[in-house]
Amino acid sequence: MNKSLERLKLVQQRIENACIAAGRKPDEVSLLAVSKRQPAEKIITLNKLGVFSFGENQLQEALKKQKELTDLDLQWHFIGTIQSNKTRAIAESFQWVQSADRQKTLKRLSAQRPGTLDPLNICLQVNIDREPQKAGASPEEILQLASLCDGLDNLKLRGLMALPRMTSDPEEQHDSFRRVRILFEELKNAGHDIDTLSMGMSSDLEIAVSEGSTMVRIGTDLLGRRET
User: Is the Cα dihedral 84, 216, 46, 70 positive or negative?
Assistant: First the structure.
C-alpha cells in the first residue's frame, strides 16, 4: 500500500505542477490508470486510494479482471486496437472506448451496446502524425467520424485520444500535441458537445497538459513494473 500511495502522490504532484505551470486548475486533468498486464491486486490497492478509472488494451485480460472485481466501483476504458469480432464484448463490458477510428467500428459498438446500459462514451483515436505503425484515423477523417458518432443512439462522443510520435525534441512534442488540441477545438466549433482530450503518458504528461490535455494515461509510473 505504501509504495502504491507513494507512486500515486508523485503522479498527482506532477499533474498539479503541470497544471500550475500552464495556468490551469489541477481538477481540469483526470487520471486514467493503465492497468494492462497488471494484476487485479494492484487495481484493488489503487481503488482503495481513490482511483476509479482503469484502461485496458487486451480484451480477454480485461474481462478476466472485471469478473474478479465486480464488487468494486470501477470505470473501465478500452484503449486497444478494436477487432470486429470483439466489438460486442467491448460494447457490453466497458464504459469508455478511447480507440475507435472507423465507421464500421462505431456502428457495431452502437448496435451491440445493451439498451439497459448508458450510452458508451467514445474518444476517437486520431493518428495525428500519420505514423503507419499506429492505429487511428487521419485528421481529415475525424470530423466525419464525429458526425456519425453523434448520430448513433447508443454512443456518446466525448472527444479525442492521441498517441503523438515519440521524439526527444520538446518542440516537436509540443507541435504534435498542439495539433491534436486544434483538431479538438475544431470539433467543438463545429457544434460537437465534447469535453475530453485524452493525451499524455508518463514520459510526456507535462507537455500534454501544457497543450490542453484533460486526461492523462499513466501506467508503469503509477502501478509499477508490468508482468511479462
Answer: negative
Q: How many domains does the chain have?
A: 1
pLDDT tens digit string along 202-220? 989 999 999 999 999 999 9
The burial of 170, by beta-carbon neighbours within 10 Å (0-12 exposed, 13-18 middle, 19 or more buried), is given as exposed
pLDDT digits (tens, 9 = 90+) for 170-184: 888 899 999 999 999
Q: Which amino acid is at 92?
A: E
Res 228: pLDDT: 63
C-beta of residue 100 within 8 angstroms of C-beta of residue 125: yes
State the pTM of this model.
0.95
168 burial (CB, 10 Å; 0-12 / 13-18 / 19+) is: exposed
- Let me know if 50 is exposed, middle or buried by CB neighbors in 10 A (0-12, 13-18, 19+): exposed
The neighbouring-strand residues paired with 215 are 30, 198
For residue 228, tell me if it sits in a domain: no
Q: Report mean pLDDT in 10-residue bins for the chain, 228 residues.
A: 91 97 96 96 96 97 97 96 96 98 98 97 96 92 98 98 86 94 97 97 94 97 83
In the block, residue with C-alpha cell 510520435: 165
Range of the domain at 121: 2-223
**Residues 98, 79 contacting (CB under 8 angstroms):** yes
59 belongs to a structural domain: yes
Q: Percent of the chain beyond pLDDT 70?
A: 99
Here the cell at position 19 is: 497544471
Q: What is the CATH number of the domain that holds 124?
A: 3.20.20.10
